[in-house]
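In response to reviewer comment 3 from the previous cycle, which asked for concrete evidence that the modeling workflow produces usable outputs, we include below a single protein chain processed end to end. The sequence was submitted unchanged, and the resulting structure tokens are shown without manual editing.
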Amino acid sequence: MNRKQVLPEVEISATPQALQAVDLCAPQTYHGEGRLSLGALPRVALELAISSPDNGFAWQIQTQFTANQAGDQAQTLRLRLNGQAPLTCQRCLQTFQYSLNVERLFIVVADEAAADAYPIEDDLLDPLVCSPHFDILALIEDEILLSLPLVPKHPEALCAPSPLLGVIEEPENPFKVLKNIRK
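The workflow returned the following structure tokens.
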């Protein structure tokens, strides 16, 4: 590709259907932004404490071609996600709002072999295999799920232990009777 060549820039529609088939193999750049409701993100909806139609996530995507270390043109994809996720605190069992602000940068590679060969030490870029029908909606959903905490908890100062935790009685030690046998 000629460095002086101007690539066409295509705006991605904000509809879930348009996000499911983006041609990342084409020599063009993409940009787009929008808001996805939980109806378009069923795997995320399963992880949330409350699934209301008002919940959703704002997204923004921008691709560009830049020169890599070998001097070849490489396509990068920047993904930004923002939103609130209602989660259940595992310490107090109350619902709280988890703020999600994610920015990820990916490099688009030709095939699985190139993705496997990509240096794992590169913390800034993760490889994505290009496809004429790349599913950006699935990428957005995956990144939201990866950004949620494994064990959601309030900060300790804001968290009151559940009253149910105090009800559990400690069982009697079965070896307590053996203590009297020695005497």
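Residues 9-181 form one domain. We consider this sufficient to address the reviewer's concern, and the full set will be provided in the supplementary archive.
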